[in-house]
Known about the structure:
eight-stranded parallel sheet; six-stranded antiparallel sheet; alpha/beta; binds alpha-D-galactopyranose; 2 domains; TIM Barrel; single chain; Immunoglobulin-like
Amino acid sequence: MKSLIQQAIVFVCFTTLAYGLQNGLARTPPMGWLSWERFRCNTDCDNHPDSCISENLYMAMADRLVEDGYRDAGYEYVNIDDCWSNKTRDENGNLNPDSKRFPSGMKALADYMHKKGLKLGIYGDFGSKTCAGYPGSLNYLEKDANRFAEWGIDMFKMDGCNVDISLMKKGYPEMGQYLNATGRPILFSCSWPDYERGKGIPVDYQSVASHCNIWRNFVDIQDSWDSVLKIIDYQANITDQWGPVVGPGNFSDPDMLIIGDYSLSVSQSQAQMAMWAILAAPLLMSNDLRTISPEFREILLNKEVIQVNQDPLGIMGKRVLQIGKVQVWMKTLQSYEYAVAFLNEDDYGMPKNVTVQMGSLGIATGIYDVQDIFINKDFMDFSTDDKFSILVPPEGCRLLHLYPSELRHGRF
Length: 412
Ligand code: GLA
């Protein structure tokens, strides 16, 4: 006869398998490309053959990801957003891609990605229709999960338009289970908390994190610096709630990177990249990789900032200090290392000099070497007791990686 402990273990394993999202994915924040912010719902391929939502667009981005070094830097998902399907389901209730815009079908598109060492993500909605009015998954959750798995889909973003929001608590976990049950590892991106927040319904953070790999919790990003700042500010105010549930397998998604689009300067782009790294946010670019300028590509491919984002501990950084219009953020990294970001919101035309004592930011006492990530400055030693001064560009950021001197010197 099994001991009580053995029985308890069997029970715990069984219930975890049955109710948790145990797919082993997103051990670090997922990285890739997503069409929405830059290409929206442009379905007019006659007039816009190169920028309409079609298989050509996703294949073109996949080619750039591979040839321009993004895949090798970690960007592996190519994600379709809204407006890919026919306007109605077929006679068997199945979703199908628009045959004019996706003539080869989704399976072929997924194969294309997989052959290139990439992954394919797709979009759907928990409601009767998607936000742009395409068929939603309400009453078809299981059918759609199976369809996505048959096609070879690797990530599913489930939006939450056109539905009674009180159904989400039950419906999103249900979809997580259907995705799991397909046996195909499909990363699950949930918009559920954002809809609850919008309605003032208290969000059950534990539940979201145990059923979703990544989740949106705030409004859509737009192509502006204001939008980036607004999102950062929201994240700053909720890290106490979300921080504890963020970690390998579960990340909060402040929405896409808009670096290389129309609005952000180089300095603002560094700031978005740095802050998404500090937040352990998914790095999903929404831009045109065919025409992006080299200075933006360089930011997106910066190995050190990606390393901060992809740190295996998966800790969500926090805003720890505000000095006038300069915010100071700190993220704990593996091996007793830290990342510290100084974000200057001010548009005053000269860099702001700020002085902090690093020890007061929650960094363990000691001597550290500093790597200044975007400026690529030499390392310099400092003690957490010392005063540390730094110039922070207007509407920009300085991102530092702190290495305990003793360990680093031992290693190199
Ligand atoms: C919502 C989502 C966006 C995008 C659109 C598509 O607004 O938040 O990210 O998916 O729907 O219609």
